[in-house]
Amino acid sequence: MLKKILSELNMKGSLQIVEAICQIEGKEEFAIALLQAEMDYRKLRAFERRVRSAKFSTNKRWDEIDPKLNPKIDFKSVKKHGSGEFISRKENLCLMGPQGTGKSHSLLALGRQVCEQGFSVKFYTACSLVNALEEAREQHKLSKFMQNIVKASLLVIDELGFVPFSERGANLLFDVFASRYERGSIAVSTNLSFDKWIQIFGSIELTAALIDRFTHNAHIYVYDGESVRLRQAKKNKCKQE
Questions:
Q1: d(CA 121, CA 149)
Q2: Which superfamily is assigned to 62-230 in CATH?
Q3: Most buried in the list 2, 35, 43, 95, measured by CB within 10 Å?
Q4: Residue 126 has pLDDT above 80, yes or no
């Protein structure tokens, strides 16, 4: 009978452990265990839905980073933002430094963290975001696309600075930053310092306006170190010789 009721209520988490918790003698403890199992199940499913919706490029975790390889980088402080407090305050995050130092890895690990905290995330490389914006514009769906961008608790833009944009692409990306200004958080990784962002956006005025909005209430971390991938490649080469 209990299984039938749980099934009708679609309480899949409770159904999975009902055999075990039926051994508990106290009724109150039984009810608590039953409901806790359902809560845990629903939280896990909700987390998995948020991760799928975020469309992370790959699955990365903090424990996969060895901070000893680049001791100047404050990975610990960046990880603390996984609590999502900066998102609640509509603040931004910027990881700035050369390639291979763990910026993308950090954003991906952080994204999973905030998904666990119940925040919605959208993940793009800068190039893929601009391409998606231009495609939406051509299909007359830009307004709807922008609504989805604004709705997410956190917008992650990875690899800003690797590819320069056309004037139209730069303007569209500026609109994204402007639309989320004091309305939603943006987390960015870039290989360029702010004074070089003009290489991405072209216009001095546009670049200055974008940086002004983004850096207002932003947490900025410099990833000063050596490329871990390059270091590993050198090590592998030495082994082969």
A1: 9
A2: P-loop containing nucleotide triphosphate hydrolases (3.40.50.300)
A3: 95
A4: yes
